[in-house]
Amino acid sequence: MAEWLRRASRKAGQAPGTLIHVGERHEEEVKVSLMDYDADRLEERVLADPAEGSPYRDRDTVTWINVDGLHRVEVIKALGDQYGLHPLALEDVLNTFQRPKVEDYADHLFIVIRMLSYDSVQNDIVDEQVSLVVGPNYVLSFQEREGDVFEGVRERIRGGKGRIRRMGSDYLAYALLDAVVDEYFPILESLGERTEALEQELISEPTSDTLREIYNLKRDLIGLRKSVWPLREVTNRLERGESALIQPETIIFLRDVYDHTIQVIDSVEVHRELVSGMLDTYLSSLSNKMNEVMKVLTIIATIFIPLSFVAGLYGMNFVIMPELQLPWGYPLALGIMAAVAITMLAYFRRRRWL
Amino acid sequence: MAEWLRRASRKAGQAPGTLIHVGERHEEEVKVSLMDYDADRLEERVLADPAEGSPYRDRDTVTWINVDGLHRVEVIKALGDQYGLHPLALEDVLNTFQRPKVEDYADHLFIVIRMLSYDSVQNDIVDEQVSLVVGPNYVLSFQEREGDVFEGVRERIRGGKGRIRRMGSDYLAYALLDAVVDEYFPILESLGERTEALEQELISEPTSDTLREIYNLKRDLIGLRKSVWPLREVTNRLERGESALIQPETIIFLRDVYDHTIQVIDSVEVHRELVSGMLDTYLSSLSNKMNEVMKVLTIIATIFIPLSFVAGLYGMNFVIMPELQLPWGYPLALGIMAAVAITMLAYFRRRRWL
Amino acid sequence: MAEWLRRASRKAGQAPGTLIHVGERHEEEVKVSLMDYDADRLEERVLADPAEGSPYRDRDTVTWINVDGLHRVEVIKALGDQYGLHPLALEDVLNTFQRPKVEDYADHLFIVIRMLSYDSVQNDIVDEQVSLVVGPNYVLSFQEREGDVFEGVRERIRGGKGRIRRMGSDYLAYALLDAVVDEYFPILESLGERTEALEQELISEPTSDTLREIYNLKRDLIGLRKSVWPLREVTNRLERGESALIQPETIIFLRDVYDHTIQVIDSVEVHRELVSGMLDTYLSSLSNKMNEVMKVLTIIATIFIPLSFVAGLYGMNFVIMPELQLPWGYPLALGIMAAVAITMLAYFRRRRWL
Amino acid sequence: MAEWLRRASRKAGQAPGTLIHVGERHEEEVKVSLMDYDADRLEERVLADPAEGSPYRDRDTVTWINVDGLHRVEVIKALGDQYGLHPLALEDVLNTFQRPKVEDYADHLFIVIRMLSYDSVQNDIVDEQVSLVVGPNYVLSFQEREGDVFEGVRERIRGGKGRIRRMGSDYLAYALLDAVVDEYFPILESLGERTEALEQELISEPTSDTLREIYNLKRDLIGLRKSVWPLREVTNRLERGESALIQPETIIFLRDVYDHTIQVIDSVEVHRELVSGMLDTYLSSLSNKMNEVMKVLTIIATIFIPLSFVAGLYGMNFVIMPELQLPWGYPLALGIMAAVAITMLAYFRRRRWL
Amino acid sequence: MAEWLRRASRKAGQAPGTLIHVGERHEEEVKVSLMDYDADRLEERVLADPAEGSPYRDRDTVTWINVDGLHRVEVIKALGDQYGLHPLALEDVLNTFQRPKVEDYADHLFIVIRMLSYDSVQNDIVDEQVSLVVGPNYVLSFQEREGDVFEGVRERIRGGKGRIRRMGSDYLAYALLDAVVDEYFPILESLGERTEALEQELISEPTSDTLREIYNLKRDLIGLRKSVWPLREVTNRLERGESALIQPETIIFLRDVYDHTIQVIDSVEVHRELVSGMLDTYLSSLSNKMNEVMKVLTIIATIFIPLSFVAGLYGMNFVIMPELQLPWGYPLALGIMAAVAITMLAYFRRRRWL
Q1: C188, C274, C302: residue with CB nearest E8
Q2: Nearest residue, CB atoms, E208 vs list C203, C267, C316
Q3: pLDDT digit string (tens) for B229-284?
Q4: Pairs of residues, one from chain A and one from chain B, whose beta carbons lie less than 8 Å apart
Q5: pLDDT for C330-348, tens place per residue?
Q6: Quick count: other Cβ atoms within 10 Å of Cβ D327?
Q7: What's the rounded Cα separation, in Å, for the pair A123 and C86?
Q8: Torsions phi, psi of A217, nearest 5?
Q9: In the complex, which subunits touch B with 3 or more CB pairs below 8 angstroms?
Q10: How far apart are CA C31 and CA C49, in angstroms?
């Protein structure tokens, strides 16, 4: 997920509002799909040309146009013109390194959020920008590529389950936000598991892989945090109901999303706190191990070095060394050695090294 | 208490307000009990069916319905319908990984708090969600399992001690909150004892168990903190008396609970500060010990290595080595060795290693 | 001063307002003393029974009733009833583990502060709770034991020095607060001396006692901080003059106390900052020393190990070893050894280890 | 980029408003260039004397006077007098160590920002002060030296691309701000690359160069931060539209600059967080390596030291040493050595050192 | 500069407003000098007795009375009475351990600031309290000793340069504040140089002196910070122009002082951030060096220890050791040793220790 560090990159020196796609180029075709519904009927189709969507604009029904893929700038531009979007908003749709935000353009709200999902194959967090434009009777959603977390919402629209068919575009926007935020929880869970595994490893078996994994975990948390904190401001601003586009009955649902965002932030902060102490624990654990190693070395060396000295002493070749002639010289030397060794061991035991 | 890290997990992709119990499944039967009282009379019973509680709804007396166990969703739903609870509130009751909060639904307050208790058998902190619904003349309380900290409140109602029988449902809610917060103090005390024991161990006898215990203490504090900080907001919002359901004479009591919450937070923060420095102390203490080990090794090695060299020197087998023939060669060699050893010892003493 | 960590402990499950003394039991008798004065006259007596104080209640003079010792609950209760104190306030007087606070009960202010004094015999900070009740013409003060910092105030009342006899109960309350805050300065000074002594020791002579002293200093600072920060809120709230009980001419004096509190906080924070870096300095200093030890070991070992090898080489007993027969074999061996030693020394000098 | 640390330096003891150039002296000539445009026409010239610019002052067209080089104080002063600038503002233009700020002098805005650019030759961040004076129909810009990031803006004015020719001086000021902020992104990108390279090196191959590079990165981030944080206040104040000089239609563009500033700050903070943990990682990585070294030493030493002792033992020259006479004495000694060595190896394997 | 730590000390138990000089006793005579000026005339004299100043009080001219030395309390008191100062303000003048503050006594402002200057002889920061009393047509300034940073202001008054003679007492107060703040910049510069020198030393040549210098730098920064942060509040409050004594045209100058204060704070914070990481860098650098030492030891020891063992082996005196009899036994032994040494060296090279 190191890619978000490079997110800084940006077309420089262009006039503001110049539409250039900045981001990863995903190879698939750009796909524009439409759902148009009210409590009684539902129409669902794929648009070959954005212009096919224009008749839906002025109907009373809720129209949801979803765009997968951003690299065909003309499609985005056509939709933008159709719904009267500000050039700077379109620029933000295309520049996929935005931080989450909400902007109120009187006749529509422009919302940018980050959709995270856990790619269990790559064992990695996949990060994608989702831009929402919420008007009185329409929602436009722009995604970087196909495959999203909105399938549950579509099912609910199709099945007519819950309130969604009876309520307006603001509730649809809420449902999309909610789907994105809900997807953060499994990610947190996987982070939780990694944290726990690391903690085990840290104290019992610290290696340089542990160090690397601490580092990766830290980066993932920093990345997650960068997505979630501004999201809090977004949901908070929506929930305060300042925009006339948000119906009072939707606010309580937005508050629920806000609560979930706070819960995500809480969890991220808890993980950060746990991870932030890990390097110190790692160092402590290593020092502990080094201490063990040193003790072994010290015990062996300090026992045998004096013994070897005694042996060396009587290995000298002086012509006159009286002890060498003594019949009990050899046993005496062994006895001295034993005494030295025992003294040392007693000393170590007293210092609790053994 | 690592479970709260996994608390992130959540049913995803469901319509909001879908009632599914998310949490640990406790095997006991769901138990619904009712206390109905005013200054003069008290009725206490166990309800086989929530419907039995409906006659009490419209009486002037204070009705307290307590539910132990959340896994029978239909019971919760029946009660919710009876008292007109919002589906999102019911969802929060069932999803037991909420952070403490209070929500004002005009005709009732919805309060979520975390009831902690110290399980001295498991030597662990037990964490349970308690949801309160406070209406003009009733309090509903939902707990995850039987066994709670409300026994003192029940006794006071039964005995008619203090103000409780003379006051309304808001005072009952206060009494329940107060009972929950009071239970935090013994937990803090047990944490205090662990902290003190650790501090002793840290400096005198650091082992890898110490490291593990520091880590556990830190986690417990993070968990406690996660419950207590939002509780502060809850009690603060109640104490400000914004809701019409809170009588002025109850506010001073709620302020008292707020004060206690602040005291708990103060203590948690003090503990965190103490624990946060422990890893550094641990490392320092280990380094101190390693220094001792190294000194012993160095002293022994640097004394004997030169001596052994001298011994080795005169163990060489050169045909012509004049010293070997000298009558005083051996004593001279011993003398040199003694001189080297004494010099070394003097050096170490001067450096204060001895 | 570890006692404040245990301060968490509290009677649980009691009805609010139940009066039980929670705190250290001091063996002395409870002593109730009274001073009643105006600009012209002064009466001073010890009350055997709180009831003896009631005639003073309705006089225009300022009445100061001071209670030393809290373990006779009935005395406190009698005074409380006489002056119409709220049960929760009385509970706070008796529960001596409160954090500083001020509460405005319309007809009186209830103030809790912590009186610290330095016990130079025990070399310890003594911490005591002082509760003040400030009414229109009276001040009640409750202390845990005899012996306080108010003697200067009494002298000023007796001597009629300064403004105190000419002003009201609010000025008396100010004078008591001021006396308590003034006493913090000598404590800070003693902490400052300990900090300086530690700093000297840290770099020149780090031992495990240094570690212990760092830890103690840190705890004392945390404890001090826990008393001082809420005191700031207390003095700030008083100084803002929101209560009708505080005369405008007293406010400037309360601002002075507030300034002193800020000064205390500043000093505590400076000390904390200094102490917080000490563990790292300690570790650095230790590492420095270990480095010295390692260098000595390395120098000795790397010089003599090769020499010993050469000696060992010519101590081998092979029948055919031509060097051993050479007349200049022994001097040659010595020469090689000298060369090796000199090379090594040169290497060490180049690396600046010598 | 250590120069910004020295930025503290300042002419002291001068009367306020005394005009002295404080900063690096750049040798090039001071160059004053002018662009005067409206939707229909564009005039572009270099002014030999600032007085040549005065006729443009009262025209309706937008006049942009750009000054490269600040060391000819009289030029600055002449312009200042012409446009009625406050002496303190002129002082700030000349003292090139200002922090970014905006000041509202009713008839003009005075803006100071820092223009950073990445000098890929010197591999260094170049930091320059840009002062803008924004009046109703003019913009003055002052730079320390020639060469800037405004070329794109000039091209857009010349080409008549986008809105710039149709809008007023406030939009021109926006365009200049935007150009400066846009230039921060490539700098962030280069920092990102350095961070990533360091991270690789940190864990696999820590050297003292790594340490130095961590330090440099840290300094660059501190310097960047010092420029960016106050810039946020600047753009935020402009975007709030408090000044009558900012047209409503420009505000949305200023909000865009504000968003970019926030994005830059986000990235700087992420980098700081990553870098702040690097020293700990470095230390951990080093300790890991030292542990490896120690293990090798310990294994070799603890295996051979006992073996050497046995060899030394039977190298002693006692007259009576029965083992020496035994026919199987030598193989026995070898066997004992082998047994010791194998035991040691087994021990190490059990401790997982091998 | 450790003295500021002791600043806590304070006369305790005195009635508020009791005038006692608390601070260092400077031996010089107390000197009271007066400047009285308007746009046209200037009178300058030294007052033998404060009473000589009273005629100037009611003139329209600006009167600046400066007192050097505070140990003659009666002089301060006489001035205080003459200008109607509050006893608490006089107490603050005399108690020279105040934190910077501003207090508004309706008819005059009382300002306390800290004047720092760099004593290049002692290589130390000298810290002195300056109290200003600003009335409608007078400024009183109190300093601890002679010698100050106001000489530039006096010169401007004498020379009639700039605005000073034309403006009122508020501008004079501004000029004094500005002179004090300007003096902070050279101090910052000297700190910057020390920081840079330390950084060089840190990585290349860490010694225990480095550690001591880091510590000193940290203390100096903490001390500086303690003076500067409250100064920010002071200048900010003045600049907001709440006092009627500050003329609107002076406010823009005060804003300039405020900006400089912010710049000083920025620099202090940058230095603190740099210094705060230094201990970690120091430790890392030391570990790096220790690693080098350990590698040398390990290489030498692990090469020669096995060699010495082989030598010892063939130094054994067993009667039957077949190798010893072999004609090529000695060369074979040498060969084995060479092989072992080469293997070891190859191993070290592979691990990149060489």
Answers
A1: C188
A2: C203
A3: 999 999 999 988 788 899 988 998 999 999 999 999 999 999 998 888 898 899 99
A4: 168
A5: 999 999 999 999 999 999 9
A6: 10
A7: 61
A8: -60, -45
A9: A, C
A10: 10
